[in-house]
Amino acid sequence: MKDIIHTEQAPAAVGPYSQAVAAPAGARTVYLSGQIGLDPATGELVSDTFDHEVRQAFANMSAVVAAAGGKLENVVKLTLFLTDLGNFAQANAIMAELIPQPFPARSTVGVAALPKGARFEVEAILAL
User: Fold this and answer.
1) Domain range 28-127, CATH architecture
2) DSSP characters for the chain?
């Protein structure tokens, strides 16, 4: 489904991600917009806990993945945005729990702010 690329000539992954992922030839590529921890019914952030916000953002992303005709196994690239990189280990642990192996490629970016006061956002690229 996806080809994991690894080399000893670059640093090993320090979390639940791969150095690189190649999509299979002829795969349909789907680019997902970022998802934050909004409750789909209310449009408001789910709670004031970082854990719940991250889990809801991944649940929202999973719903879009399914609407595109995919599964989490089809994710080849994730980008995580955090307003506080001090929460990186917690976001990393939740991602490792929710995203199946082999892990997609991933970038994590510290940002000053996110929409609606969110502390976490996730975007993805799928290969279907």
Assistant:
1) 2-Layer Sandwich (3.30)
2) --EEE--TTSPPPSSS-BSEEEPPTTPPEEEPPPB-SB-TTTSSBS-S-HHHHHHHHHHHHHHHHHHTT--GGGEEEEEEEES-GGGHHHHHHHHHHHSPSSPPEEEEEE-S--GGG-SEEEEEEEE-
**For the chain, what are the domain ranges?**
28-127
Contact between 128 and 69 under an 8 Å Cβ cutoff? The reply is yes
Q: Is the pTM of this model over 0.85?
A: yes
Across residues 39-56, what is the average pLDDT? 94
Query: Strand pairing of 120-127 and 29-31?
Result: antiparallel
CA distance to 10, 77, 78, per residue, from 95 (Å): 23, 13, 10
Average pLDDT on 45-68 reads: 95
